[in-house]
Amino acid sequence: MNAKRQLHLTVLGSGSWGSVLADVLAKNGHAVTIYGRNPQEIAEINEHHTNTHYIANLHMDESIAATTDLRQAVTGAAAIFFVIPTQAIRSVAEKVGAILNEEGNRPFLISAAKGLEEGSLDRISQVLSQSIPAAVRGDIVILSGPSHAEDVAKRDITTLTAASANDDAAAWVQWIVMNDFMRIYTSPDVVGVELGGAIKNVIAIGAGAIHGLGYGDNTKAALMTRGLAEMARLGVAFGADPLTFSGLSGLGDLIVTCTSTNSRNWRCGNRLGQGEPLQHILDTMGMVVEGVPTAKAAHDLSSQAQVDMPICEAIYEVLYRQRPLQDSIDALMGRIAKPEIDF
Ligand SMILES: NC(=O)C1=CN([C@@H]2O[C@H](COP(=O)(O)OP(=O)(O)OC[C@H]3O[C@@H](n4cnc5c(N)ncnc54)[C@H](OP(=O)(O)O)[C@@H]3O)[C@@H](O)[C@H]2O)C=CC1
Ligand SMILES: O=C(CO)COP(=O)(O)O
């Protein structure tokens, strides 16, 4: 235990990533509380230090306290990690904001989720800043990058980016998370880091789909590279640094998500490619597939901003307009010839 770093940290979300992140933070010497809404899951973490539905073969640090009581989880925390599906963040954050208003601690807010909110089309940092007034919180930091929970649980060497408008806040998160197998870099580019993390999930559905259809490595490389061009194009339209997309939260996460069977987004796409209906896939996945709602939000956002995102659009049409996959691929291949670099 590293007493020098002992802080009270709270992780909201007792799913795959929440459980593993809580374990990493506890092993780093912090006093960690994990909040979840499922009493059985919370009891399993407290009594057996496992969370078998979400993450096999992880014996969580025994110092972790799990609770279904949001007030208990949030009160006194130096930082609150949001590790729940993007579409649930606003409702949970509003409750957190009300509690912080009464309790008076001003924690840093750290988003470890990846997606865009449907309807508002907001990034998670925007959702958090709208839901929790600045007067009752510290800075907002985005923690993103190639990090399948299953691999982090096995202590695979993992690199992430901590992005914040405040360099000191990003450096603080770097300090509390970093250890001998987690290396954290900082970035001031919140927009770029968030959009990379959100859009890679949409592209990963495409990568799974082409695998399910029987396409090979050339097609996968084409999809990933042109998908990267799309996320950078969207990011630049919203003020991101294009170089951010060559980093961990862009290219790095695109690689891990498009090439790993650990990815829920890839698995969803693969099953679509094999002909399974989307609703059945979502009903049986047992975990969140962020790329599905984000494909809709990305469709709306790129239409509003008039950014050309043909691969994301093709995936949106497959998911939401029942367009046959092969038909979408044929349409992509039939697009007008153009230069490779065309921001
Ligand atoms: N898994 C991974 O490897 C990684 C995931 N992420 C991101 O982290 C976020 C969470 O993913 P992950 O942990 O994998 O998801 P999981 O599906 O594994 O778990 C989601 C967790 O969120 C909880 N939850 C869902 N809705 C609510 C709600 N309304 N209120 C409170 N809790 C809720 C679920 O509770 P319940 O069990 O009751 O449904 C569950 O504990 C996503 O944005 C994902 O993209 C980022 C990096 C790595
Ligand atoms: O973001 C992730 C890895 O970095 C997890 O991706 P999936 O949600 O597709 O499993």
From TrEMBL:
Name one cellular component (GO) term: cytosol
Location comes to: Cytoplasm
Residues that span the membrane, as ranges: none
Q: Which reaction does it catalyse?
A: sn-glycerol 3-phosphate + NADP(+) = dihydroxyacetone phosphate + NADPH + H(+); sn-glycerol 3-phosphate + NAD(+) = dihydroxyacetone phosphate + NADH + H(+)
**Residues where substrate binds:** K114, R264, N265
Which BP terms from GO are recorded? carbohydrate metabolic process; glycerol-3-phosphate biosynthetic process; glycerol-3-phosphate catabolic process; glycerophospholipid metabolic process; phospholipid biosynthetic process
Chief location category: cytoplasm
Task: Give UniProt keywords alphabetically.
Answer: Cytoplasm, Lipid biosynthesis, Lipid metabolism, NAD, NADP, Nucleotide-binding, Oxidoreductase, Phospholipid biosynthesis, Phospholipid metabolism
Protein's UniProt keywords contain NAD: yes
Q: Where is the Glycerol-3-phosphate dehydrogenase NAD-dependent N-terminal domain?
A: 9-169
Give the top-rank taxon of the lineage listed in the UniProt record for this protein: Bacteria
- Family of this protein: Belongs to the NAD-dependent glycerol-3-phosphate dehydrogenase family.
Q: What is this protein called?
A: Glycerol-3-phosphate dehydrogenase [NAD(P)+]
What is the species of this protein?
Schleiferilactobacillus harbinensis DSM 16991
